[in-house]
From TrEMBL:
Organism: Flavobacterium chungbukense
The protein's name in its UniProt record: SEC-C motif-containing protein
InterPro entries: SEC_C_motif (IPR004027)
Pfam families: SEC-C
Length: 224
């Protein structure tokens, strides 16, 4: 019987992380065990007990990381839920990467290890190595605010609403109003937004509109 790509990829991860093992329940494949974290000088720093669940649509869906040793507080401010599930990146990045495809090995190297190393950094420094990311719809606003370099949520919503229904071409004038062609200005920004799935874009727009109403209500209450 021919082995699947997932089986081959899991075998490669198990060779790379010998303290991990594979458990199978029906069609669900889970890697669990201990991973060691090393610093830039390849010196051992700490170890974490984790499990990683392979997704049904592998490799076009993100694996799920859980911290099982409770070495990290299971709270939102540590980007970890009560059940130990870990938020390793923004929902938008997850969406973009999933559509291109991500192997179990890449997930470990690009997300699991940096996430755990960042937790160690937070414990020693009281802050995140690359800055923090907000939760919920505030996190959605932060993502698009940084992407578009806009601080006003209404402007962010207006831009995204136009992007969602209007196709722009390389030689069109850039949406930022610079007078330059899109290809010489914000082509990469536009490509990122269009690279998101339609479902992700629609959910994000809805969440941003909910947040906008909440901000507007708060401002009116403060003015009374």
């Amino acid at each position: 019987m021919q082995r699947s790509k997932l089986d081959n990829d899991i075998e490669e991860v198990l060779e790379m992380f010998p303290k991990m093992k594979l458990e199978e329940e029906g069609k669900v494949k889970t890697l669990l065990g201990e991973v060691d974290i090393f610093d830039g000088a390849n010196m051992y720093v700490d170890s974490f007990n984790i499990k990683v669940i392979a997704p049904p649509r592998y490799p076009y869906e993100f694996p799920k990381l859980f911290e099982t040793g409770k070495k990290i507080k299971h709270i939102a401010d540590r980007h970890i839920s009560d059940d130990g599930s870990c938020c390793v990146c923004s929902l938008q990045e997850e969406n973009l990467v999933s559509q291109r495809g991500i192997t179990i090995k890449s997930f470990f190297l690009k997300y699991v290890l940096p996430y755990l190393a960042n937790q160690i950094y937070f414990d020693s420094q009281g802050k995140w190595a690359n800055g923090d990311f907000e939760h919920g719809n505030l996190g959605i606003f932060q993502y698009y605010s940084e992407l578009l370099k806009l601080e006003n949520i209404t402007e962010v919503i207006e831009f995204l609403s136009v992007f969602n229904v209007t196709k722009m071409y390389r030689n069109d004038d850039c949406f930022c109003g610079s007078g330059k062609k899109l290809k010489r200005c914000h082509q990469d920004t536009y490509n990122i937004f269009k690279g998101l799935s339609k479902k992700r874009r629609e959910i994000d727009l809805l969440e941003l509109k909910i947040l906008e109403k909440r901000i507007s209500k708060k401002i009116k209450e403060e003015e009374l």
